[in-house]
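Hi everyone, sorry if this is the wrong subforum. Our group has a chain we'd like a structural model of before ordering constructs, and none of us has done structure prediction before. Sequence below.
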Amino acid sequence: MTLDAYKNVTLNHHKNASYNEGAYPSSLDSVLSAKTIEDAYTTISSWKGYEATPLYHLHNLAREAGVADILYKHEGGRFGLGSFKALGGAYAVLRLLAEEVSKRTGKDISIADIQGGSYAKEVSEVTIVTATDGNHGRSVAWGCQSFGARCFIYMHAGVSKGRAKAVEDLGATVNWVDGNYDESVRQAAEDAENNGWFVVSDTSYEGYVNPPRNVMAGYTVMTNEIKEQLGSEPAPTHVFLQGGVGGLAGAMCTHLWQIFGENKPSFVIVEPDRADCLYQSGIKGEAVDVHITEETIMAGLSCGEVSNLGWEILKSGTADFLTISDDIVAPTMKLLANGSGNDVSFAAGESAVAGLAGALAALQDESIKEALGLDENSRILVFGTEGATDPAIYEELVGVAADSLAA
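Answer:
Right subforum, don't worry. Here is the predicted structure as tokens:
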């Protein structure tokens, strides 16, 4: 194994001047409270097919990189949908349906009523839409199929046909939109407004918070699992988190902050340099949108507009912002496919490896390594957010079929 691919790569780093080193502030409960997180875990862990995804210790890779441990939360098997997104979109669909059927019937409808099919007719009259780069739409489509609602998924031209077919196989209709992800978000919202449909988005904006909050709550199933999986082991010292709109990063930061308090890990946001809205927001100290002129290979992170809810957490919860180039994506996918130095082999998609790639590149850059406080005692946690959600793209980048790998 060699880490030469991570030497002399272009990294952009910004240290957050507004970082809060203290305990989780109660003022952030309005974004994502402990009760909201607990409710999501109780519901999702009861679903058919639920099981905790593995937390791998990549000991050999850690030794090569010069740190104490690298922990990799592998989401490739989540509910058979291939990514962590399965946790958020479907859960938000369920809660929205319970709220909407309650309004239509004048009754207090629970999510258990919806799951049990007691109001199947009313649910079938609800249409849910979302914009997606692939994985979130797949989760929303799965939720709609599971609970009986109609579903339209909005995709932009940069999304692969393989990811479109994955949502169509779940009974959703795909509407293609010219432009980038942010254009598809706007089109979905406009069509929903004109047709009386309901948007379940993973990004929040002014006047739209409840579904994205429930999406984020769903994501924290991962951190609940990590807490159990760590047991009496030392806590991570650093967490390298994918950027995107900030929903995943905000959810993970929130719950780990609640769990560990003042002893929380140092959070580092990692984004593509072609879609760096959180990095730019960190520099300015407020939410900043960026215009994407060239799509990144990390399709799920090709986002130019920051989620308001995510930013509320990250503006004080993250210590550092980092951007990486596309050049180290395929090498990181290959590293994991090859067993990362005789650790377990598994398929990790393009967006899954951003955190790990950022960590490995930072460890090869002495100035950034020092700025992030990384050393031989560091225990790094990363989230492998997806498996090979588009097998054709995976095989093209890695050179082997995803289903040929052990995990």
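For your construct planning: The CA atoms of residues 40 and 287 lie 27 Å apart. The chain has two domains: 4-83+216-404, 85-209.
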